Amino acid sequence: MATMDPKLTEVSQFFARFKAALTRNDFDACNNLLSHLKVMLTEFESLPPLFEETTNAIHELSLARDIYEHAVILSVKMEDQDAFERDFFQLKPYYTDVGNKIPQSPQEYPILGLNLLRLLVQNRIAEFHTELELLPSTALENPCIKHAVELEQSFMEGAYNRVLNARQTVPHETFVYFMDLLAKTVRSILSGR
């Protein structure tokens, strides 16, 4: 068995501490560890924008993707939409540019669905549709993507009761934050009538 690269071991250990802090909802520790992790990731040549073929490339790419996925989850837990957008754009190349080099993440569709929901909440409908068009047609069968698409359709049709009721059937617990924001928007539309 090959010995693990010391940098890879160090990043993995920091990431384990970050995940533990995230489980505890210790956001200060999470932000501190995440800042260190992002700096540490810059030392991996296999990551964007270089994409060099290193001996540990698959492991490095998978680890970096997992870190950015957890960063997105942290931003939702902290209800920080700016951090969500920043972390999502750092994560996206791991889905689009190297998705064929590493095993698919179970978090990919929940996070892509979250991003669609964020765009809907922010009334960025053109970007919502652009992101949707970039997804493979099979993605529309995923409950997380399907949920966001159905919400957008209900919202555009003015079927606000369906939008409000959709919170009860969120496909992933991370959706609740954006669903609550969408519900506020709907209630302000309804009260403005």
From TrEMBL:
<dbReference type="InterPro" id="IPR006746">
    <property type="entry name" value="26S_Psome_Rpn12"/>
</dbReference>
<comment type="similarity">
    <text>Belongs to the proteasome subunit S14 family.</text>
</comment>
<dbReference type="InterPro" id="IPR000717">
    <property type="entry name" value="PCI_dom"/>
</dbReference>
<dbReference type="GO" id="GO:0043161">
    <property type="term" value="P:proteasome-mediated ubiquitin-dependent protein catabolic process"/>
</dbReference>
<dbReference type="InterPro" id="IPR033464">
    <property type="entry name" value="CSN8_PSD8_EIF3K"/>
</dbReference>
<keyword id="KW-0647">Proteasome</keyword>
<dbReference type="GO" id="GO:0005829">
    <property type="term" value="C:cytosol"/>
</dbReference>
<dbReference type="GO" id="GO:0005634">
    <property type="term" value="C:nucleus"/>
</dbReference>
<dbReference type="GO" id="GO:0008541">
    <property type="term" value="C:proteasome regulatory particle, lid subcomplex"/>
</dbReference>
<feature type="domain" description="PCI">
    <location>
        <begin position="82"/>
        <end position="193"/>
    </location>
</feature>
<dbReference type="Pfam" id="PF10075">
    <property type="entry name" value="CSN8_PSD8_EIF3K"/>
</dbReference>
<protein>
    <recommendedName>
        <fullName>PCI domain-containing protein</fullName>
    </recommendedName>
</protein>
